[in-house]
Amino acid sequence: MAVLEILTYPDERLKQEATPVGAIDDEVRTFIADLEETMDAGPGGVGIAAPQVGRFQRIVIVDCSKTRKPVPNHGRLFLINPEITQWDGMVVGREGCMSVPDYTGNVIRAEAVTLKALDLDGNEQEYHCEGFEARAIQHEMDHLDGMLFLDRLVSRRNDLFKRKVYQKK
Ligand code: NI
Q: In total, how many domains does the chain have?
């Protein structure tokens, strides 16, 4: 396994759209293990998307089980070719990103989402996620379409905040 290099803003590759995964073979599973190790090595990351390490396939990992304040969550989610099928409500919340290490920002997201995705065995699963987990999933899925939270700020002047020190886990 390996910790992979994270692309950071303003790297143009972060704007690239990712393509669906075809066969989930050993090569893909090895990549996902490396992606997982990279997420776990990062500071306080609750998710990671394949494009953040320069692989433009529709793969994200989200894990909201270790947040400081406990939130409803599904544990560690491996989402391959995820698609949101329903959005409910809207809420503003603060987001950070390993690809934007120096800033956090306030972003409007759906309060709850229903999604389907393939798991590591290639089986289709459906999840209903709310609150912080729903936010993390929407954030990570944006990476698959070449979007960063910076692209969703209503106002850079009012909604973007400089970090002093990246919060340690
Ligand atoms: Ni991110």
A: 1
pLDDT at residue 22 greater than cutoff 80: yes
How many whole angstroms from 26 Cα to the centroid of ligand 1?
Answer: 26
Q: For residue 138, what is the domain's CATH number? A: 3.90.45.10
**37 is a catalytic site residue:** no
Give the distance (Å) from ligand 1 centre to CA of residue 77. Answer: 16
Question: How large is the average pLDDT for residues 34-51?
Answer: 94
Domain enclosing residue 67, as ranges? 12-84+114-148
pTM, 2 dp: 0.95
- For residue 133, tell me if it sits in a domain: yes
Find the 52 Cα to ligand 1 centroid distance in Å: 8
Establish if 55 belongs to a structural domain. Answer: yes
User: Which runs of consecutive H residues, i.e. helices, occur in 14-127?
Assistant: 26-41
CB 84 within 8 A of CB 143: no
> What pLDDT was estimated at residue 166?
56
Counting Cα atoms < 13 Å in the Cβ hemisphere of 136 gives 28
Annotated active-site residue in 95, 130, 133, 140:
140
